[in-house]
Design brief:
Bound molecules: guanosine-5'-monophosphate
Order of helices and strands: EEEEEHEEEEHEEHHEEEHH
Oligomer: single chain
Shape: globular
Mean pLDDT: 97
Low-confidence stretches: none
Protein backbone atom coordinates (compact mmCIF):
# COMPACT_ATOMS: atom_id res chain seq x y z
CA UNK A 1 0.00 0.00 0.00
CA UNK A 2 2.48 2.66 1.25
CA UNK A 3 5.00 3.67 -1.41
CA UNK A 4 7.35 6.69 -1.30
CA UNK A 5 7.90 9.22 1.47
CA UNK A 6 6.44 12.42 0.03
CA UNK A 7 6.89 14.75 2.98
CA UNK A 8 7.92 14.67 6.61
CA UNK A 9 6.42 17.16 9.04
CA UNK A 10 6.89 17.67 12.78
CA UNK A 11 4.25 15.11 13.78
CA UNK A 12 3.64 12.96 10.70
CA UNK A 13 5.19 11.40 7.65
CA UNK A 14 3.20 11.43 4.41
CA UNK A 15 3.54 8.57 1.92
CA UNK A 16 2.20 8.09 -1.59
CA UNK A 17 0.06 5.03 -2.29
CA UNK A 18 1.40 2.66 -4.96
CA UNK A 19 -1.66 2.27 -7.16
CA UNK A 20 -3.74 5.34 -6.42
CA UNK A 21 -2.49 8.91 -6.92
CA UNK A 22 -5.55 10.27 -5.08
CA UNK A 23 -4.68 8.60 -1.78
CA UNK A 24 -1.97 9.12 0.84
CA UNK A 25 -0.86 7.27 3.96
CA UNK A 26 -0.27 9.41 7.06
CA UNK A 27 2.14 7.87 9.54
CA UNK A 28 1.96 9.46 13.01
CA UNK A 29 5.32 9.98 14.71
CA UNK A 30 6.20 9.78 18.39
CA UNK A 31 7.78 13.26 18.27
CA UNK A 32 6.25 16.17 20.14
CA UNK A 33 7.18 19.75 19.33
CA UNK A 34 6.04 23.06 20.77
CA UNK A 35 6.75 26.76 20.36
CA UNK A 36 7.33 26.41 16.61
CA UNK A 37 9.74 23.50 17.04
CA UNK A 38 11.89 25.10 19.77
CA UNK A 39 10.87 22.47 22.33
CA UNK A 40 11.17 18.85 21.21
CA UNK A 41 10.81 15.41 22.74
CA UNK A 42 9.90 11.88 21.78
CA UNK A 43 7.18 9.89 23.54
CA UNK A 44 6.83 6.14 22.97
CA UNK A 45 3.26 5.48 21.88
CA UNK A 46 2.29 9.07 21.07
CA UNK A 47 1.93 8.33 17.34
CA UNK A 48 -0.43 5.46 18.10
CA UNK A 49 -2.63 7.59 20.38
CA UNK A 50 -2.92 10.46 17.92
CA UNK A 51 -3.65 8.11 15.03
CA UNK A 52 -6.36 6.22 16.90
CA UNK A 53 -7.91 9.30 18.53
CA UNK A 54 -7.88 11.27 15.28
CA UNK A 55 -9.48 8.29 13.46
CA UNK A 56 -12.30 8.19 16.03
CA UNK A 57 -12.86 11.93 15.66
CA UNK A 58 -13.02 11.77 11.86
CA UNK A 59 -15.33 8.71 11.98
CA UNK A 60 -17.66 10.58 14.32
CA UNK A 61 -17.62 13.68 12.11
CA UNK A 62 -18.44 11.52 9.06
CA UNK A 63 -21.46 10.10 10.92
CA UNK A 64 -22.55 13.67 11.55
CA UNK A 65 -22.25 14.57 7.86
CA UNK A 66 -18.93 16.42 8.06
CA UNK A 67 -16.58 15.08 5.43
CA UNK A 68 -12.84 15.01 5.75
CA UNK A 69 -9.90 13.50 3.94
CA UNK A 70 -10.03 10.49 6.31
CA UNK A 71 -10.71 7.04 4.80
CA UNK A 72 -9.63 4.48 7.42
CA UNK A 73 -7.08 3.61 10.08
CA UNK A 74 -4.72 1.07 8.49
CA UNK A 75 -2.95 0.00 11.67
CA UNK A 76 -1.95 1.42 15.05
CA UNK A 77 0.03 4.37 13.69
CA UNK A 78 -1.13 4.91 10.11
CA UNK A 79 -4.23 6.11 8.34
CA UNK A 80 -5.36 6.21 4.73
CA UNK A 81 -6.56 9.62 3.55
CA UNK A 82 -7.68 11.32 0.37
CA UNK A 83 -4.89 13.36 -1.17
CA UNK A 84 -5.46 17.08 -0.76
CA UNK A 85 -3.42 20.16 -1.39
CA UNK A 86 -3.27 21.85 1.99
CA UNK A 87 -4.41 25.48 2.12
CA UNK A 88 -1.73 27.21 4.24
CA UNK A 89 -4.17 28.42 6.90
CA UNK A 90 -4.55 27.26 10.49
CA UNK A 91 -8.17 27.77 11.44
CA UNK A 92 -8.53 28.04 15.22
CA UNK A 93 -11.91 27.88 16.96
CA UNK A 94 -12.08 29.02 20.59
CA UNK A 95 -14.85 28.34 23.11
CA UNK A 96 -12.83 29.43 26.13
CA UNK A 97 -9.86 31.82 26.37
CA UNK A 98 -6.52 30.03 26.71
CA UNK A 99 -3.10 30.04 25.08
CA UNK A 100 -2.09 32.65 22.54
CA UNK A 101 -5.26 34.76 22.71
CA UNK A 102 -4.61 35.40 26.40
CA UNK A 103 -1.02 36.46 25.65
CA UNK A 104 -2.00 38.55 22.63
CA UNK A 105 -5.03 40.39 23.96
CA UNK A 106 -4.92 40.25 27.76
CA UNK A 107 -8.37 38.60 27.85
CA UNK A 108 -8.56 36.67 31.09
CA UNK A 109 -7.94 32.93 30.83
CA UNK A 110 -11.19 30.86 31.01
CA UNK A 111 -13.35 33.70 29.60
CA UNK A 112 -16.19 32.02 27.66
CA UNK A 113 -16.62 32.97 24.00
CA UNK A 114 -20.27 32.81 23.01
CA UNK A 115 -20.47 32.71 20.04
CA UNK A 116 -17.19 30.87 19.57
CA UNK A 117 -14.31 32.83 18.11
CA UNK A 118 -12.72 31.85 14.80
CA UNK A 119 -9.17 32.98 14.07
CA UNK A 120 -6.94 32.50 11.02
CA UNK A 121 -3.20 31.95 11.19
CA UNK A 122 -0.88 31.85 8.20
CA UNK A 123 0.75 28.39 8.17
CA UNK A 124 4.38 29.34 7.69
CA UNK A 125 6.97 27.98 10.13
CA UNK A 126 9.61 30.57 9.16
CA UNK A 127 7.23 33.32 10.31
CA UNK A 128 5.96 31.46 13.40
CA UNK A 129 2.42 31.05 11.98
CA UNK A 130 1.24 34.68 12.41
CA UNK A 131 -2.38 35.65 13.12
CA UNK A 132 -3.92 37.09 9.93
CA UNK A 133 -7.26 38.53 8.84
CA UNK A 134 -9.48 37.56 5.89
CA UNK A 135 -7.89 40.10 3.57
CA UNK A 136 -4.44 38.70 4.33
CA UNK A 137 -5.77 35.19 3.64
CA UNK A 138 -7.07 36.34 0.22
CA UNK A 139 -3.69 37.91 -0.52
CA UNK A 140 -1.47 35.10 0.77
CA UNK A 141 -3.36 31.97 -0.31
CA UNK A 142 -5.54 30.88 -3.22
CA UNK A 143 -8.80 31.04 -1.23
CA UNK A 144 -11.73 33.14 -2.41
CA UNK A 145 -14.16 35.03 -0.18
CA UNK A 146 -16.68 32.22 -0.74
CA UNK A 147 -14.05 29.64 0.31
CA UNK A 148 -13.43 31.57 3.53
CA UNK A 149 -17.15 31.64 4.30
CA UNK A 150 -17.29 27.88 3.70
CA UNK A 151 -14.16 27.15 5.77
CA UNK A 152 -15.40 29.17 8.75
CA UNK A 153 -18.85 27.59 8.55
CA UNK A 154 -17.30 24.11 8.49
CA UNK A 155 -15.01 24.98 11.40
CA UNK A 156 -18.01 26.07 13.50
CA UNK A 157 -19.92 22.90 12.54
CA UNK A 158 -16.93 20.80 13.59
CA UNK A 159 -16.91 22.74 16.86
CA UNK A 160 -20.60 22.00 17.54
CA UNK A 161 -20.09 18.29 16.92
CA UNK A 162 -16.81 17.97 18.79
CA UNK A 163 -18.07 19.81 21.86
CA UNK A 164 -20.74 17.10 22.18
CA UNK A 165 -18.28 14.31 21.30
CA UNK A 166 -15.82 15.30 24.03
CA UNK A 167 -18.51 16.19 26.58
CA UNK A 168 -19.60 12.54 26.46
CA UNK A 169 -16.19 11.59 27.83
CA UNK A 170 -16.20 14.39 30.38
CA UNK A 171 -13.86 16.72 28.50
CA UNK A 172 -14.43 20.39 27.73
CA UNK A 173 -13.35 21.42 24.23
CA UNK A 174 -11.55 24.69 24.94
CA UNK A 175 -10.13 25.35 21.47
CA UNK A 176 -8.66 23.56 18.48
CA UNK A 177 -6.85 24.05 15.18
CA UNK A 178 -8.06 22.73 11.84
CA UNK A 179 -6.47 22.57 8.42
CA UNK A 180 -8.31 22.32 5.13
CA UNK A 181 -7.20 21.04 1.73
CA UNK A 182 -8.48 20.76 -1.81
CA UNK A 183 -9.10 17.29 -3.22
CA UNK A 184 -8.71 16.18 -6.85
CA UNK A 185 -12.15 17.64 -7.70
CA UNK A 186 -11.18 21.00 -6.21
CA UNK A 187 -13.54 20.56 -3.27
CA UNK A 188 -12.43 21.95 0.11
CA UNK A 189 -12.32 19.21 2.76
CA UNK A 190 -11.20 18.99 6.37
CA UNK A 191 -7.64 17.59 6.42
CA UNK A 192 -4.66 16.98 8.71
CA UNK A 193 -5.50 15.61 12.18
CA UNK A 194 -7.78 16.31 15.13
CA UNK A 195 -6.13 15.00 18.28
CA UNK A 196 -4.97 16.16 21.73
CA UNK A 197 -2.00 17.63 19.85
CA UNK A 198 -4.32 20.04 18.05
CA UNK A 199 -7.09 20.59 20.65
CA UNK A 200 -7.20 21.95 24.19
CA UNK A 201 -9.21 19.56 26.35
CA UNK A 202 -9.91 20.17 30.04
CA UNK A 203 -11.41 17.55 32.35
CA UNK A 204 -14.93 18.75 33.22
CA UNK A 205 -14.71 17.46 36.80
CA UNK A 206 -11.21 18.55 37.80
CA UNK A 207 -10.24 21.20 35.24
CA UNK A 208 -7.06 19.20 34.59
CA UNK A 209 -5.39 19.91 31.22
CA UNK A 210 -5.53 16.78 29.04
CA UNK A 211 -3.77 17.77 25.83
CA UNK A 212 -0.42 18.90 24.45
CA UNK A 213 -0.26 21.71 27.04
CA UNK A 214 0.92 18.93 29.41
CA UNK A 215 4.09 18.86 27.29
CA UNK A 216 4.19 22.59 26.49
CA UNK A 217 3.93 23.53 30.19
CA UNK A 218 5.67 20.48 31.75
CA UNK A 219 2.56 19.50 33.68
CA UNK A 220 3.06 15.73 33.80
CA UNK A 221 3.27 12.62 31.65
CA UNK A 222 1.87 13.19 28.16
CA UNK A 223 1.48 9.49 27.32
CA UNK A 224 -0.58 8.78 30.46
CA UNK A 225 -2.90 11.65 29.54
CA UNK A 226 -3.31 10.55 25.89
CA UNK A 227 -3.86 6.95 27.05
CA UNK A 228 -6.60 8.20 29.38
CA UNK A 229 -8.38 9.97 26.49
CA UNK A 230 -8.24 6.89 24.24
CA UNK A 231 -9.53 4.69 27.09
CA UNK A 232 -12.45 7.04 27.68
CA UNK A 233 -13.27 6.99 23.94
CA UNK A 234 -13.07 3.19 23.80
CA UNK A 235 -15.30 2.85 26.88
CA UNK A 236 -17.90 5.14 25.26
CA UNK A 237 -18.72 2.65 22.46
P1 LIG B 1 -2.93 28.89 20.44
O1 LIG B 1 -3.18 29.89 19.33
O2 LIG B 1 -3.64 29.25 21.71
O3 LIG B 1 -1.49 28.56 20.63
O4 LIG B 1 -3.60 27.52 19.94
C1 LIG B 1 -4.98 27.39 19.79
C2 LIG B 1 -5.33 25.93 19.54
O5 LIG B 1 -4.84 25.52 18.28
C3 LIG B 1 -4.71 24.95 20.54
O6 LIG B 1 -5.64 23.89 20.77
C4 LIG B 1 -3.47 24.42 19.85
O7 LIG B 1 -3.18 23.09 20.24
C5 LIG B 1 -3.87 24.49 18.39
N1 LIG B 1 -2.74 24.90 17.54
C6 LIG B 1 -2.43 26.13 17.09
N2 LIG B 1 -1.32 26.11 16.32
C7 LIG B 1 -0.93 24.84 16.27
C8 LIG B 1 0.18 24.18 15.63
O8 LIG B 1 0.98 24.76 14.91
N3 LIG B 1 0.28 22.84 15.85
C9 LIG B 1 -0.62 22.16 16.63
N4 LIG B 1 -0.45 20.84 16.82
N5 LIG B 1 -1.67 22.75 17.22
C10 LIG B 1 -1.82 24.06 17.06
Amino acid sequence: MKDKLLYEGKAKQVFTVADDPNLLVLSYKNDATAFNGEKKAEFQGKGRYNNLISAKVFEYLHQKGINSHFKEALNETEQLVEKTTIIPLEVVVRNVAAGSIVRRTGIEEKTIFNPPLVELFYKKDELGDPLINDEHALLLTDVTEADLVKIKKMALQVNEQLQAFFKEINLQLVDFKLEFGRNASGEIVLSDEVSPDTCRLWDIGTGEKMDKDVFREDLGDLVTVYDNILSRLEAKQ
